[in-house]
Each structure stands twice: as structure tokens, then as C-alpha cells.
Amino acid sequence: MSADKSGKLTAIIHESINNSSTNEGSAENIVGITRTLYACPNVKTESKFVLTDMQTPLAMRAPGTVSGAFALESALDELAYELKIDPLELRLINYAEVSPEDGKPFSSKELRKCYTEAAKKFGWETRKPEPRSTKDGNWLVGWGMATGTWGSAWLPASARITIKADGTAMLESAVTDIGPGTYTTLSIIASKNLGLPIEKIKAVLGDSTLPNAPIQGGSFTTASVGTAVQEGAQIVLKKLFEMAKFGDYKFEDMKVEGGKFVAKDGKSISFVEILQKNNLPQIAETHTTTPNTGERNKYAIASHGAQFVEVKVDEELGIIKVTRVVELTAAGKIINPKGAKSQEIGGVVWGIGMALTEETQVDHRFGRIMNPNFASYYIPGHADVQGVETGFVEEIDTIVNPLGVKGLGELGMVGIPAAITNAIYHATGKRFRNLPVTPDKFF
User: Is 410 a catalytic residue?
Assistant: First the structure.
């Protein structure tokens, strides 16, 4: 990585070596983030693929990108110290207003707001620039920061929406909920579009007999299945209204609230009344959403986030504590704020684990994993996770999908490992280029 004296990047070279098994290939896109995050006129990336006598590596939360971000954001931090430029200022100097890879405009990008608001919450302006300049008793204190980004895909997906004569509704889709709150998020979308309280919405997910949907992965579930739910709800409502034969009123002029179609003059007719009048127990519609790839392809589409971290290091014992994290994210419209916040906190915890404790140990004689359970594969516990503050900046995107949502389930982890090791350098003056940073690596 090179830059001129003002901090403007002039060149980046990022090379990665990926391993996979001998019986099937599986490679992570480690270098992709380097092509898309900062404005730089000369960027070269190269990925090499090596087959090894080990099991096939599988995808798990921000695969490839979080590793690439560790390399890129660590190198940028080193450059900031070499140039004697604040690490945040260096990122702002090289802020990409259009996609560095192909020059396309961003569908939306509020990363600058993430930087400024997160820095203010963290108190970054009081940072002492010199490493080893801050202590708290026997603890060396360091501050570090990094940037994260993740794509925002939208895939074909199907959902069935049913309105019942008992005043309830049901949404069905084959998509699974592996923990991010998909049941709740899809129910919120159905509730808003059907004008029913969320307690009257039943979500049925995760069965292959249900309408087709993508896997739960890639941070595209809400964009894909959520859009199918929203569009499907509008279709079933229109069919229901046509059955009502409600005077000369038009569907487009109706408000939907409280399980009723409500006209501007206050007259209304309920869903239950319409179904009973037509002797129907329910009305259902299965809908498949198709991404508007033509329009989307005109833009660069991604979510972004800024991470600021404080660590305390006992250098004699090699103990590292992550004492404070502030992370702000720009991910379009937030449908389920509580669930989204939980996802970002989870991403921070995973990032702490990657940076400080988690490591797959392999017997190189046989390719056998030697720590296959939680007794010897260490993940962060409650004592390892202290002050974590996450939040979202407002970002309106009319291009990404009809909901205006972007991927965020994986984004929360992307910049955290680099922010932690950058903070460790600020605390100790020691630079760590491989993970995890365990106590033995201090000596």
C-alpha cells in the first residue's frame, strides 16, 4: 500500500492464498473488499487456490470479507502512523464517492455519517496519537478504528399470504430462521402491509413443502423474502377488495388498518365481513418476487459501518480486554430495530472471538482438527464482552429493493478484528498481523 504525503492512496496490492479440500473446491473472496472500499487509482488483487488434505472450508458469517478487512484495515492503520495522519482522517481523505471498482454511483452511502457520529460517541477527538501514551494503573490503554462493508443482494423468493375469516393472517415461506429474528421481521412486514396487529400474524417457515426461498445466508433474507411478503400482501388485499364490491371506491384510494379497508370519507368494510359475505374461510396468494437486476446493475450497492474500539492490555501477562466498542451502521431501512441491534452486537462478539480467542488447531500430519468442541475452541464469554454500543444512521435507498433494506447480519463483524488489533498497537506499540492475538504472542 502506498500514498502521497497528503494521505491520498496511490496503489494497493492485495494477494490471498485460499485452501480447500482435494475432493471439492471452495474459495472465499478475501480480496474483494480491497477493490470496493477506498478511492485508489491503482489496485491489484490476486487470489491463489491451493488444495490441501483437510475438510472443505464452509461459509460462516462474513466469509472472506472479514479476513480481507483485517488485512486492509490493518495496513491502512500502519500507513496512518507512517504518515502521522489520524486513522479516521486518512479514511476520510480516501473516501469513495463512487465505486472504486467500476465507477458506478452508490445507490446510497452514509458511511461518512457513520464515521463522524461514531467518532463523536466514542470521544475519538481526545485520542492521544502516540502509542503507549495512555495508562490506567497497570493497564496500557489503546484506541483503534476500522471500516466494514457488505453487499446487499436481492434474490428470487416466494411467500404465501393468507387472510382468514377469523381476522388473522398467515405468511408461509421455506426460508429458515437460524437466529437472526426472521420470524419477527417478516411478521412486522406482513403486519404493516395487511394493516393487522402483529399478534394476529402467524409466520410458518422452514419447510420444503412451503413456497421456495433462498438459504438463510448472505444477509439477503429480508431483502428477498421480505419483498415477497410485501408484494404478496398487496396482491391478496387487492383480490379481497375486488370481492367486496364496496360501492364505487377504488382499491388505490383505500387505507388498510385494523383489519379493514377504510375510505377517505370514513366508510369501511372489514376483511372478516368480506370473507363471510362470500362464504370463504380464507383467501390466499403465493407470490414470487423477481429482482429488478436491470436497474440495480446501474449502481454499486452495499451497506457500510464504522467501528471504534478501546482495549486495555496487561503487557506483563499478555492479557487483553476489549473494554469499549462503538459501532454505527448504514444499512438502509431498519425493519426490526431490536433484532437489528442484536445482530450488530452479535457481530461485535464474533469479531472479538476472531481477534482474541478463536483458532482452529490442525494436526498437520493427518489434517485432523484437534479442537472440535467448545472445551478447546474458545469463544468469548460474558466477562469478555463489556461496553458495546451499536446503532444505525438513517439511510434511504429507493434502488436496492422495494423495502429499501440492506444486508446487515454479517456487516457487524467485518471491521471488528482489525479495530481491535489497531487498538492493541496504539496501546502497546506492537503490531500483530495474524489472529488470534493470544497472550503467548506478546512474549
Answer: yes
